[in-house]
Amino acid sequence: QRLNNRQFKELLSELESEYGDLVYHCEVRWLSRSNMLARFYTLREEVKHFMEMKGKPVMELSDGKFLSDLAFMVDITKHLSELNIKLQGPNQLVSSLLSNTTDDPNLENQLRVASSSLPADIRCLSKEKQFQPSH
Description:
- By secondary structure, the protein is an all-alpha fold.
- The protein has one domain (2-119).
- 63% of the residues lie in helices and 0% in strands.
- The chain has helices at 2-14, 33-42, 44-53, 64-87, 94-102, 105-116, 122-128.
- It starts with a helix and ends in a 7-residue tail after the last helix.
- Mean pLDDT is 71; it is low at 25-31.
- This is Protein ZBED8.
């Protein structure tokens, strides 16, 4: 495992990547999971290249749908992490916690924009909601 880590760091250095390494699970205590996920997303091409060099390709890193879902998850976890930090401030009252979640003028718009880029699965929707003409 240390050999792979060293080789991956060397590859990132050769490619002049923005980051010098991935963050590993045991190092996440001080770094939020959303930041770890964002860093993985940023390094996805380097990770893909490294795994291919090792003879263990990760097919999901070539799948557009998976990458779109991953990007959406990165955005959502970032927003949830920011909201979580807002809610952890000192002397928070329930009323102020509720206003933080419901009065954010950008949150609703950001969620609408993010969800509008998701393709609707008409087959799934039609199974769940049966069309019934009015009488």
